[in-house]
Amino acid sequence: MSPLPVQPLSPLDGRYRPAVSALGEHLSEAGLNRARVHVEVEWLIFLTGKSLFGSSPIGADQVAALRAFATDFGQEQIDELARLEATTRHDVKAVEYLVRAKLDELDLNSIAELTHFAATSEDINNLSYALTISDAVREVWLPKFRIVLDALRAQSELMRDNAMLAHTHGQPATPTTMGKEFAVFVYRLDRILTRIEGISYLGKFSGATGTFAAHLAADPDQNWPALSKEFVESLGLDWNPLTTQIESHDWQVELYQATSHANRVLHNLCTDVWSYISMGYFRQIPQAGATGSSTMPHKINPIRFENAEANLELSSALLESLAQTLVTSRLQRDLTDSTTQRNVGVAYGHSLLALDNIERGLREIALNPVALDADLDTNWEILGEAIQTVIRAEVTAGRSTISDPYAILKELTRGKRINSTDLSEFIAGLDIGADAKARLQALTPATYVGLASSLVDYLGDSK
């Protein structure tokens, strides 16, 4: 057997690449290296801008060229870094040499020794990860998440008046509306969205053990913490003043836990929609050319929601592993985080793929009011809750002498199917006030939905 051509090991880089490729701009090795070049370049510009160690500010044209070197980072630089790293055996050192070569090209050799000045590799890496993760979440993942949330919100409004039989413990229960049930998910996800949007992306730039020791040795008269804060914030990040060699990753833990929480809620949505499809509450819209089963031509399988379930599980497993690992670093530094953080893109890739499937899946289903109405009409016994509750109120008000209303309704309805006639005759014989009796006689499973429709209006209060 001849060997296959080199193949992607992850389905995210193979079968599912079109759905997740935008993340590769940020959370790939190349994206990380581009960010490293950006940080190294900005540190050079920052130091010379302060005229430290007798340097002079870099000319505007040269600043533009250096920044373009970072923003235009492409295949040529990727290949050159691979060549350099083959010798250095150190990824950040390879980036430093790449930047030095650019300085030589721009006739800026006089400031070459300010490249990577007083910086440990983690000073560059933590800022680079903060930048790439921030961009990936804000520019790729969150927009897709909001699209799904908006689609759910629209469905909630559309179906707010569509009564359906609820199923607590999988058994017929007090009716609700499909729109209200979708609104529950929107409310939950909206709150998590607020947490994710509020994440503070932290960065440190304080040397080998977070003490500014090398900085102070080079120039004891500078306020290095203030300079560090100014530099980190110039990158659009928040400054962390107290660290070991590494930025402690707590902001990453907060982000990954919140994202995993969103995944879990979306997983719950998928299992519910899958169940509603199975019950006939939603019908699936046939897609031209699609095959549901290789042997049963009638089938349309809810594959969008099944695919999303699986990818949400994978994403959360990775995110939770990241959160557990990244909170710990032995003493002042170990490298467990180095390998771990390289999987952030995989974790968000599976979540993004799930969001894509949910978005598409919601477009491929339609509510089936006939099935909703039929289920309601064959479960009149669920009105037992309403009847015994009204009797309790009538007894309290002195308009009834019925003893133990719950037991009476339990005897009438538990484990039994009754119809509208049975219930009407039972209500007619009750010892309750005329108004209460009229209200109960007018009640049907389809109208016993309480305030379900108007509760959708509370979606505006979710943040």
TrEMBL record:
Taxonomic superkingdom: Bacteria
Keyword Lyase: yes
Limits of the Fumarate lyase N-terminal domain: 15-308
InterPro entries per UniProt: Fumarase/histidase_N (IPR024083), Fumarate_lyase_CS (IPR020557), Fumarate_lyase_fam (IPR000362), Fumarate_lyase_N (IPR022761), L-Aspartase-like (IPR008948), PurB_bact (IPR047136), PurB_C (IPR013539)
UniProt keywords, alphabetically: Lyase, Purine biosynthesis
Residue span(s) of domain Adenylosuccinate lyase PurB C-terminal: 329-449
Record carries keyword Ion transport: no
Pathway listed: Purine metabolism; IMP biosynthesis via de novo pathway; 5-amino-1-(5-phospho-D-ribosyl)imidazole-4-carboxamide from 5-amino-1-(5-phospho-D-ribosyl)imidazole-4-carboxylate: step 2/2; Purine metabolism; AMP biosynthesis via de novo pathway; AMP from IMP: step 2/2
Function: Catalyzes two reactions in de novo purine nucleotide biosynthesis. Catalyzes the breakdown of 5-aminoimidazole- (N-succinylocarboxamide) ribotide (SAICAR or 2-[5-amino-1-(5-phospho-beta-D-ribosyl)imidazole-4-carboxamido]succinate) to 5-aminoimidazole-4-carboxamide ribotide (AICAR or 5-amino-1-(5-phospho-beta-D-ribosyl)imidazole-4-carboxamide) and fumarate, and of adenylosuccinate (ADS or N(6)-(1,2-dicarboxyethyl)-AMP) to adenosine monophosphate (AMP) and fumarate.
UniProt-listed PANTHER family: ADENYLOSUCCINATE LYASE (PTHR43411)
Name of this protein: Adenylosuccinate lyase
Organism: Rhodoglobus aureus
